[in-house]
Write a structure and sequence with these properties.
This protein is of the alpha/beta class and about 220 residues long. The protein contains 11 helices and 8 strands. Strands 1-2-3-4-5-6-7-8 form an 8-stranded parallel β-barrel, surrounded by 6 helices. The protein is globular. The structure holds erythose-4-phosphate.
Length: about 220
C-alpha cells in the first residue's frame, strides 16, 4: 500500500521524507488556504521534494475550463496529478486529460457508481472520502469494499486512493479492504507507529541495559 501525505505544509512534508513513507502528496483548495502560500508556488515546491504524484485541484466548474486549468497545472512539474471533482464536467475533463497522458485524481467520491464513471474516464486515482461519510453515519469503509469489487470485476487500472482519513483505524481498514493508496494527514501518519506496549517494552529493555553498564559504540 502506498502512503500519500494529505497536506500543503512544506515543513510537515520535509519532516516525513526521511521515514521513506511518503509516496506522494495530495492537496486541495482548503489545504492551500491553510498553508497561506501561493498555489502554483507551493505545488512546484512539493513536486521538487517528492518523486511521486502530487495532486493539485482545479477550481473551474465547466469541463473546458477544467481542462485548461488541468493542462496549466500539469505544466508545473512532471509529477503533478490533476485533481478533478466527481461531476459530469469533471468526468469529461478526466477523459480528455487522461487521454493526453496527464495523471488525474477524481475527488469527492461518495458512491460506487461515481467511482465506476471515474474508472471509465481513465482516472489514475479515485478518491473515496471515508471520513466525511462516517461523519454522516454512512460506513465509509463499505464504499472502499464496493469500489474494490467493481474495479476487480472489470480489471480497471484506476487506483483506489482512500481519502478523508481521520484515524489509524481508517488506514488499517483501507489496507484490509484493498485500497491501493491512503492519503493520510501528517499527524495520523506519525501516530501509526505508536503503541503503549511498544513504549512500555522499550523502557523495560533500556532500564535493564543501563544495569549492564555496557555501550554499543
Ligand atoms: C484528499 O485528497 C482530500 O482532499 C482530503 O483527504 C479530504 O479530507 P477531509 O475530509 O479531512 O477534509
Amino acid at each position: 500500500m502506498k502512503f500519500f501525505v494529505d497536506t500543503a505544509d512544506i515543513a510537515e512534508i520535509k519532516g516525513l521524507l526521511p521515514t521513506g513513507l511518503v509516496d506522494g502528496v495530495t492537496t486541495n483548495p482548503s489545504l492551500i488556504m491553510k498553508s497561506g502560500r501561493d498555489f502554483r508556488e507551493v505545488v512546484a515546491e512539493i513536486c521538487d521534494l517528492v518523486d511521486g504524484p502530487v495532486s493539485a485541484e482545479v477550481t473551474a466548474l465547466e469541463a473546458d475550463k477544467m481542462i485548461s486549468e488541468g493542462k496549466s497545472l500539469a505544466g508545473i512539474a512532471e509529477n503533478v496529478c490533476v485533481k478533478l471533482p466527481l461531476t459530469m464536467d469533471g468526468i469529461t475533463a478526466c477523459n480528455a486529460l487522461s487521454g493526453e497522458g496527464i495523471k488525474t485524481n477524481v475527488t469527492l467520491c461518495f458512491a460506487a457508481n461515481q467511482a465506476l464513471l471515474a474508472a471509465k474516464a481513465g482516472a489514475t486515482f479515485i478518491s473515496p472520502f471515508i471520513g466525511r461519510l462516517d461523519d454522516i453515519n454512512i460506513d465509509g469503509m463499505e464504499l472502499i469494499r464496493e469500489i474494490r469489487m467493481i474495479y476487480d470485476n472489470y480489471d480497471f487500472r484506476t487506483e483506489i486512493l482512500a481519502a478523508s482519513i481521520r484515524s489509524a483505524n481508517h488506514v488499517k481498514d483501507s489496507a484490509l479492504f484493498g485500497a491501493d493508496v491512503a492519503t493520510v494527514p501528517p499527524g495520523v501518519l506519525k501516530g501509526l507507529a505508536s503503541h503503549p506496549l511498544t513504549d512500555k517494552g522499550l523502557k523495560a529493555f533500556l532500564d535493564d541495559w543501563a544495569k549492564t553498564g555496557q555501550k554499543i559504540i
